[in-house]
From TrEMBL:
InterPro entries: GNK2 (IPR002902), GNK2_sf (IPR038408). Residues 1-22 form the signal peptide. Residues 254-276 are annotated as: Disordered. The keyword Ribonucleoprotein does not apply. It comes from Salix udensis. Residues 255-268 have a biased composition (Pro residues). The keyword Lyase does not apply. This is Gnk2-homologous domain-containing protein. Residues 26-130, 136-245 form the Gnk2-homologous domain. Keywords: Repeat, Signal. Pfam families: Stress-antifung. The lineage of its organism: Eukaryota, Viridiplantae, Streptophyta, Embryophyta, Tracheophyta. CDD domains: Gnk2-like (cd23509).
């Protein structure tokens, strides 16, 4: 009897431990062309390992969810950085970066240039200096399989103008500060649109604007009438959904919203309501282009 009691207690302690344990980040995609590779035990590999441990150890004292570092000397120098989503906590950021430094070597064991994305963070490295440069060479499109049914044209328009507004806000952050913004807008009477944009903080205002404008220009390719979507480059990304996918409190603490002055055009009095509340957060990878 007592042993049964004990095992019950142990079991509940165990499940508590599992619940409290940090969750793995949500993997999105990775990219590592095998056109440039290193060999086992090469100087490049040693430098890469050094870089990854430096990124990992510095993930605890990152400023603005971002850290960039290089390792080694010229022909074998490795440049790397991580970026956490602007609203995630330090512990979620650290957990994501630590996970990424291991995961990336499993997915890209011999490649010199690699990028890996999760919902919570991004990690990348290269044999070229990638700091303060806009990188839009590789694009990830993601979109919800579900279409909006109420006034899709004005929905597309609302998505574009809202993301455009916050892109300007994120880009205008001073050099080195978080280049991040979120905004909600009214879609139908019951549905709200939630948008998020972010650039790596090493970009200039002009660089961040250019990067996000490039991403916004792909809205038609990825997200026409879709209930949710994302365009992700190495240097910047945006996401929108009909549910609150970010922590609005943390986002407001990270970057205080501007004074309320710019109401977006609200379409639709709402005819048919197409499924309400929390919509699916299962996003499909539509296509990946180079
Ligand atoms: C590089 O990738 C291509 C396409 O995925 C594959 O066919 C090729 O075998 C790879 N080469 C090496 C050296 O791994
Ligand atoms: C790499 O180095 C380790 C330890 O020095 C050694 O055991 C291994 O055989 C080396 N591998 C290659 C492919 O040179
Ligand atoms: C980053 O990590 C490296 C190696 O772990 C350490 O030497 C360095 O001081 C750290 N930098 C900062 C800013 O904490
Ligand atoms: C990070 O990047 C900046 C340029 O944006 C550069 O000046 C700085 O030296 C880099 N930091 C490290 C530790 O390499
Ligand atoms: C959304 O619209 C596209 C294109 O019109 C269509 O192919 C797709 O089946 C629709 N998705 C759903 C879930 O109805
Ligand atoms: C959205 O609608 C609510 C009530 O209908 C209103 O109070 C709010 O100001 C609107 N928000 C925006 C951003 O237009
Ligand atoms: C959202 O962020 C706030 C402030 O950082 C935090 O207190 C809260 O626990 C977060 N909520 C969730 C659901 O993570």
């Amino acid at each position: 009897m007592d042993s049964l009691k004990l095992s019950t207690i142990l079991l509940s302690l165990l499940s508590l431990a599992i619940i409290t344990q940090a969750q793995d980040p949500t993997y999105l995609s990775h990219y590592c062309p095998n056109t440039t590779t290193f060999t086992t035990n090469s100087t490049y590999q040693a430098n890469l390992n050094l870089l990854l441990s430096s990124l990992s150890s510095n993930s605890t004292r990152n400023i603005n969810g971002f850290y960039n570092v290089s390792a080694g000397k010229d022909p074998d120098e490795v440049y790397g950085m991580f970026l956490c989503r602007g609203d995630v906590s330090n512990s979620v950021c650290r957990n994501c970066v630590n996970f990424a430094t291991k995961d990336v070597l499993e997915k890209c064991p011999i490649e010199k240039v690699a990028m890996i994305w999760y919902d919570e963070c991004e990690l990348r490295y290269s044999n070229r200096n990638i700091f303060s440069t806009v990188d839009q060479d590789f694009t990830i499109f993601k979109s919800s399989p579900n279409n909006v049914t109420v006034q899709p044209e004005s929905f597309n328009q609302l998505v574009e103008t809202t993301i455009y507004d916050i892109a300007a806000r994120a880009a205008s952050a001073p050099s080195g500060a978080k280049k991040f913004a979120v905004q909600q807008a009214n879609y139908t009477g019951v549905q709200k649109l939630y948008t998020l944009v972010q650039c790596t903080p090493d970009l200039s205002t002009a660089g961040c604007s250019r990067c996000l404008e490039g991403a916004i220009s792909k809205l038609g390719n990825c997200c026409d009438r879709k209930q949710g979507g994302r365009v992700i480059f190495a240097s910047c990304n945006f996401r929108y959904e009909l549910y609150e996918f970010y922590n609005a409190t943390a986002a407001a603490e990270a970057v205080p919203p501007p004074s309320p002055a710019t109401p977006s055009p609200p379409p639709a009095s709402g005819s048919k309501t197409s499924g309400k509340g929390k919509v699916d957060n299962i996003l499909f990878n539509c296509h990946v282009v180079l």
